[in-house]
TrEMBL record:
Key word Nucleus present: yes
Family the entry assigns: Belongs to the archaeal Rpo11/eukaryotic RPB11/RPC19 RNA polymerase subunit family.
Protein name: DNA-directed RNA polymerases I and III subunit RPAC2
Domain of life the protein comes from: Eukaryota
Predominant place of localization: nucleus
GO biological process, alphabetically ordered: transcription by RNA polymerase III; transcription elongation by RNA polymerase I
Domain DNA-directed RNA polymerase RBP11-like dimerisation: 12-83
Keywords, alphabetical: DNA-directed RNA polymerase, Nucleus, Transcription
Entry GO terms, CC: RNA polymerase I complex; RNA polymerase III complex
Pfam families: RNA_pol_L_2 (PF13656)
Molecular function as annotated in GO: DNA binding; DNA-directed RNA polymerase activity; protein dimerization activity
UniProt organism field: Dendrobium nobile (Orchid)
Keyword Ligase in record: no
Subcellular localization, as worded in the UniProt entry: Nucleus
Length: 104
C-alpha cells in the first residue's frame, strides 16, 4: 500500500503487511546506498502488528520505482549469498572427504 501525493511521485510512504525488521532494515540499507535516494527510513507502528512503514524520498525518480529496484537488488543479493554459501559447503565437504580418504 502506498501513501503519498498524487502530484509528487518522488516522496512516498509504503506500508508492507506481514513484515518486520528483517525485510525493512535490509531494504532500508540498500535504499540508503542508492544515490537517487535523499532519505529512507522505516518504522513499525506497534510491536503487536506485523506491519512496516517505509518512507522513501528521492532526488527526482519515482519513489515507487526506486523501491521496486531495491527489492530486485535484495533478491539478487540473497541469491548470491546463497550460491556462495552452497559452494563453500560443497568445497568443505569435498575437502573433508579427501582428508578422510587420506587418513588425516
Amino acid at each position: 500500500m502506498e501513501h503519498g501525493s498524487l502530484t509528487d511521485s518522488k516522496n512516498s510512504t509504503f506500508c508492507l503487511m506481514d513484515e518486520d525488521h528483517t525485510l525493512a532494515n535490509s531494504v532500508r540499507f540498500l535504499l540508503n546506498k542508492d544515490p537517487r535516494v535523499e532519505f529512507c527510513g522505516y518504522s513499525i507502528p506497534h510491536p503487536s502488528e506485523n506491519k512496516v512503514n517505509i518512507r522513501v524520498q528521492t532526488t527526482g525518480d519515482s519513489a515507487k520505482d526506486v523501491l521496486k529496484e531495491s527489492f530486485q537488488d535484495l533478491i539478487f543479493l540473497c541469491q548470491h549469498v546463497r550460491s556462495t554459501f552452497e559452494k563453500s559447503v560443497a568445497d568443505f565437504k569435498s575437502t573433508q572427504s579427501r582428508q578422510e580418504m587420506n587418513g588425516a
